[in-house]
Write a structure and sequence with these properties.
By secondary structure, this protein is α+β, with helices and mostly antiparallel strands. The chain folds into 2 domains: 250 residues, 3-Layer(bba) Sandwich (FAD/NAD(P)-binding domain); 152 residues, no CATH class. The protein has a 7-stranded antiparallel sheet with strand order 17-16-13-14-15-12-18. A hairpin with a 4-residue loop joins β20 and β21. The model has no long low-confidence stretch (mean pLDDT 94).
Length: 415
């Protein structure tokens, strides 16, 4: 058996296969010299392993692509099974207030080491700096892999395997999937997901580092909107609200060339009909207070001051002296601060791709190709992606586990 890709899905698949069938040799091939690189950088170096969801139905609601197909898979190996898997290997997880789950150590190295140790104990053979330059299905089953790099130097240029798991991750370049097209698979055109918005001439440019725990971001003229924490950066806006919007709107934003107007509602609990009388009443009851120095709705002082300045006030303006025009402008900014989006930026080093191998061509119970017997897929190489919060790793653990277990089942040979 062979596994292509030394990431989360590849490791989980290799371990699952080797543990389920100790009599088979599992070889994991990684083209670079680094293993589990995404695991090590995720969550700011803490590794957001999964998300606290009690049921598969709750879990699938967080996947813009693949939600319908993953429901059955999550019922077989979901969040509870992931928690148990790591706990059995001495890595307890903790749940944070927003549902994200991390190792108790708050270190991604804990997760990476547990996977490497589990692979070693299961007898998985790991070859780094080894590229697979060609895959040839054999007439009577199995595959011949043409190798280059360290693996070829050690074992020769060819490796024959009975079953093959592809866990090479996502890639935003369509041409990088040509080798899978050559095997007969349809590729859903890849585009980036989970990215932040560039706002070159942002009216919030002086507020780098300011965060709001609950805001709503809407893409003007589209049906795209999301609520959640929002962070002002030196290049534009980021935070879960932006990242989740980019995931759900990945294809539409790609079509738009990542150009448009984002409208930020800093008070999502209010509509114009409720905010206007609220402001009027507050003004009457707090007339002697200065507008700029008394932030409302829990907004940070710096953000509130900027909004009031843009509304046309000066630092000394009191609520009782606030002109109607300035009040209307402040209301508008609280509900719809416009930001001219002109591009995107990858979120840290955690790029996620929308697109990949079509799920119509994969048996989601076993992750085996419906087109090429003995060929399996796991992780982001598939047209599956989740929003931020541990959901992409959960999909990797689930699909890797199911693929590995299915690969381990001895083949029935016709006589």
């Amino acid at each position: 058996m062979a596994v292509l890709g030394g990431g989360a899905a590849g490791f989980f698949g290799a371990i699952a296969c080797a543990e389920a069938n100790p009599n088979t040799q599992v070889v994991l091939l990684e083209k670079t010299g680094k293993l589990l690189s995404k695991v090590r950088v995720s969550g700011g170096g803490r590794c957001n392993v999964t998300h606290a969801c009690d049921t598969a139905a709750q879990l699938v609601a967080h996947y813009p692509r693949g939600s319908k197909q993953l429901k059955s898979a999550f019922q077989h190996f979901g969040v509870a099974e992931t928690i148990a898997w790591f706990a059995q290997r001495g890595v307890p997880l903790k749940t944070e207030a927003d549902g994200r789950m991390f190792p108790l150590t708050d270190s991604s190295e804990t997760i990476a080491r547990s996977l490497e140790d589990a692979a070693r104990q299961a007898g998985v053979r790991i070859l780094t700096n080894t590229s697979v330059d060609a895959i040839h299905p054999l007439p009577h089953g199995g595959f011949q892999l043409k190798l280059s790099g360290s693996g070829a130097a050690q074992h020769g240029p060819f490796l024959r395997v009975t079953r093959l798991l592809i866990a090479t991750g996502g890639n935003p370049k369509s041409a990088n999937y040509d080798w899978l097209r050559a095997l007969g698979h349809h590729i859903v055109e890849p585009v980036p997901s989970l990215f932040t918005f560039n706002v070159p001439n942002s009216p919030l440019s002086e507020l780098m580092g300011v965060s709001v725990p609950h805001a709503r971001i809407v893409l003007a003229g589209e049906k795209l909107q999301y609520e959640g924490p929002l962070l002002v950066t030196h290049w534009g806006v980021s935070g879960p609200a932006v990242l989740k919007l980019s995931a759900w709107g990945a294809r539409r934003l790609h079509e738009l060339g990542y150009v448009g107007t984002a409208l930020i509602n800093w008070t999502p609990a209010h509509t114009e009909e409720t905010l206007r009388p609220w402001l009027q009443q507050f003004r009457q009851e707090n007339g002697k207070k200065t507008v700029a120095s008394n932030p409302q709705f829990g907004l940070p002082q710096r953000l509130w001051r900027t909004l009031t300045e843009q509304a046309g006030t000066v630092p000394e303006t009191r609520w009782s002296d606030l002109p109607a025009k300035a009040q209307n402008r402040l209301l508008e900014l609280l509900l719809r601060t416009p930001l001219a989006v002109r591009g995107k930026t990858t979120y840290k080093e955690e790029f996620v791709t929308c697109g990949g191998v079509s799920l119509d061509e994969v048996d989601l119970k076993t992750m085996q190709s419906r087109r090429v017997p003995g060929l399996y897929f796991a992780g982001e190489v598939l047209d599956i992606d989740g929003i931020t919060g541990g959901f992409n790793f959960q999909a990797a653990w689930t699909t890797g586990f199911l693929a590995g277990r299915a690969m381990a089942v001895p083949a029935i040979v016709a006589v």
